């Protein structure tokens, strides 16, 4: 207990419990996940930027999604790795905690908005292919991306501000590997019931709000695909949105698991597992989901490697 009128100015993150050997195993595992995530998403960004055959709205959005994945995983995982390798070093100031939570939530909100935008893009590609280039012109795509980024960073100002207006006087031990809002609320001496309700409603608004264009888009997409007479035509049409659909299921599933619950102060073990799904697993899967079965991207990547090898020889 910090005292009746004092509030914590720094937090000690407990991270993952367990023996030294277990922490080293976790460090190796998460370092592998982090490295592959950074390299895989960087490959997507670079390939999309340099290859003229990938200058289309779908790959433009994919490039921004990959940038978001890199930033999201980098908000917390490096600090988590430090704590696993060097125990008792995970001390974070109140300001740093606020910045970390704000960046994480803002980037996540921008990502959800972008997923909705990508669903609309797939709807136009499948349901209005002849008008695709007219509707999804470069200026429109640019504005859609800008709005997604700006919306995420503006929307999370009040929730983070409200969280850090609370007095954290119960303890400065945060039972998590990053500044999780649910665990922060546990440390508050104030009545957090109203704040938790508002935060819950805002989480519902963000997730359900971005799901609506996704659900509507895929309803029309499936309806259109089923009207195609040949099975090969149906497979070809669905292949254009299969990767995005897979990512939607994983992304929204993990977000619903973590955020859409009335009680923000959930058990620490639950929050850790759910946070790993959002922070580590989803960004890790992104490069594989969008590229492994994408022949156009694979060909562009191979061409880029061949061009790079020729430059080295010259």
Number of helical segments with 4 or more residues: 12
Strand content: under 5%
Strand order of the largest sheet: 2-1-3
Number of DSSP strands? 3
Average pLDDT rating: 86
| Rg | 22 Å
Largest sheet descriptor: 3 strands, mixed
Q: What's the quaternary structure here?
A: single chain
Write down the secondary-structure element order.
EHHEHHHHEHHHHHH
Low-confidence stretches: none
Silhouette: globular
Keywords summarizing the entry:
mainly alpha; three-stranded mixed β-sheet; 314 residues
Notes on the structure:
The chain has 314 residues and is an all-alpha fold. Helix content is 74%, strand content 3%. The protein has twelve helices and three strands, in the order E-H-H-E-H-H-H-H-E-H-H-H-H-H-H. A three-stranded mixed sheet has the order 2-1-3. Helix 2 runs antiparallel to helix 3, helix 8 packs antiparallel against helix 10 and helix 10 runs antiparallel to helix 11. The model has no long low-confidence stretch (mean pLDDT 86).
């Amino acid at each position: 207990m910090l005292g009746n009128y004092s509030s914590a100015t720094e937090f000690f993150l407990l991270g993952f419990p367990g023996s030294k050997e277990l922490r080293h195993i976790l460090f190796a595992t998460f370092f592998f996940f982090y490295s592959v995530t950074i390299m895989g998403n960087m490959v997507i960004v670079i390939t999309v930027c340099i290859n003229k055959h990938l200058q289309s709205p779908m790959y433009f959005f994919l490039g921004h999604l990959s940038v978001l994945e890199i930033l999201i995983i980098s908000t917390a995982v490096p600090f988590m790795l430090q704590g696993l390798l060097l125990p008792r070093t995970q001390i974070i100031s109140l300001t740093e905690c606020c910045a970390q939570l704000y960046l994480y939530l803002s980037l996540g909100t921008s990502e959800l908005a972008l997923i909705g935008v990508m669903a609309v893009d797939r709807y136009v590609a499948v349901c209005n292919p002849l008008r695709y280039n007219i509707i999804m012109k470069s200026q429109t795509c640019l504005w859609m991306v800008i709005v997604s980024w700006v919306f995420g960073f503006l929307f999370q100002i009040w929730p983070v501000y409200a969280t850090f207006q609370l007095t954290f006087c119960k303890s400065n031990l945060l039972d998590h590997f990053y500044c999780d809002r649910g665990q922060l609320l546990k440390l508050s001496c104030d009545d957090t019931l109203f704040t938790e309700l508002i935060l819950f409603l805002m989480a519902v608004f963000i997730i359900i709000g971005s799901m609506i264009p996704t659900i509507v888009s895929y309803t029309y997409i499936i309806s259109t695909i089923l009207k195609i007479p040949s099975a090969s035509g149906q497979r070809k049409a669905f292949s254009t949105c299969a990767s995005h659909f897979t990512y939607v299921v994983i992304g929204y599933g993990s977000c619903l698991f973590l955020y859409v619950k009335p009680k923000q102060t959930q058990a620490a073990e639950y929050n850790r597992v759910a946070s790993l799904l959002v922070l580590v697993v989803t960004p890790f899967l992104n490069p594989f989901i969008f590229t492994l079965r994408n022949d156009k991207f694979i060909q562009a990547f191979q061409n880029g490697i061949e061009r790079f090898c020729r430059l080295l020889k010259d």
